[in-house]
Design brief:
This protein is an alpha+beta fold. Among the domains are: 14-50; 175-280, no CATH class. The protein contains 11 helices and 11 strands.
Length: 282
């Protein structure tokens, strides 16, 4: 550490006896020390600014004084969009997928994809009604129930393309609920919990039955729909066995994460006997 103004310099007899060369050496030493001190201070000043600038750019980008966040995925339950300051960054924020968010996204997309101003209708021409008979909330509820876009469009009195605008987030939600159900464990009366979570138990039991399915086919076989009356979800696994279509159904409660079989096939596929019990029965 360089201290100035508080120390004295004592010349040794040898250095003093060297005359001009000794004084020159001392001046060179002082210049070197002063130069090093100036460089160190400059590095601290510049480095501090650079570090602060780099940290800001790495942490988040801003536009008009607001932090810019980018979608990087969905939450496990499919009810929220995960956001991050960077495209490939780790999600640190989440926004619930609700009517307000969907309406704002639709409005934004309409602005981006707005067609040229329409030509004014001729006198006496009939202008079709653009308003839907169903609210956004009602449309979303019907999509969660598994209704088709065409059937909802007929009920709402609008073109199917209007209903398709609301379909994406609901598809994500239904897919997320099916995945969440697969992580739950089925409990059978008098037999206790399954050895494996529902999704893994289904795959294991399919193999035992000789049903061959690829990972893509297994993933596509899962679906879920919401029962508006009870608020629970009906989760299905559809496949073909020996040329016959089969469907196993469970009821899933997102509040408690409890899953219950709705038919015998669901009981058989979703439950696997614990290993200890299998060993003791041999």
């Amino acid at each position: 550490m360089l201290l100035t103004g508080h120390s004295r310099t004592y010349d040794s007899p040898v250095a003093a006896g060297k005359g001009r060369s000794g004084r020159t050496a001392k001046r060179s030493t002082r210049r070197a020390k002063d130069g090093a001190a100036k460089k160190s201070a400059a590095k601290r000043r510049v480095g501090g600014k650079a570090a602060a600038g780099d940290g800001t750019s790495k942490r988040r980008a801003t536009k008009n004084g607001l932090t810019v966040l980018r979608p990087v995925g969905l939450s496990e339950d499919g009810h929220s969009v995960i956001l991050a300051p960077r495209v490939r960054g780790k999600g640190t924020y989440q926004v619930p997928i609700d009517d307000r968010l969907v309406a704002q996204l639709i409005a934004a997309r309409d602005l981006l994809e707005a067609p040229p101003p329409p030509v004014a209708p001729r006198a006496g021409a009939v202008v079709p009604a653009a308003e839907s008979k169903l609210t956004i909330k009602e449309i979303q509820a019907l999509l969660r129930e598994g209704r088709t876009v065409e059937s909802i469009a007929r009920k709402a009195g609008v073109d199917p393309t209007w209903i398709e605008r609301f379909e994406g987030p609901i598809v994500w939600e239904r897919d997320g609920m099916a995945r969440r159900t697969q992580r739950s464990t089925l409990v059978r009366s008098r037999r206790g919990p399954s050895e494996l979570p529902l999704g893994e138990a289904v795959v294991a039991n399919l193999r035992r039955r000789g049903v061959v399915m690829t990972e893509e086919q297994i993933e596509a076989a899962w679906d879920s729909v919401k029962e508006s009356r009870t608020g629970t979800w009906r989760v299905r696994f559809a496949f073909t066995s020996r040329g016959r279509p089969r469907v196993a159904e469970w009821r899933f409660d997102p509040e408690t994460s409890e899953v219950a079989a709705l038919n015998e096939l669901a009981n058989e596929l979703g439950w696997l006997e614990p290993r200890r019990r299998r060993r003791s029965s041999r």
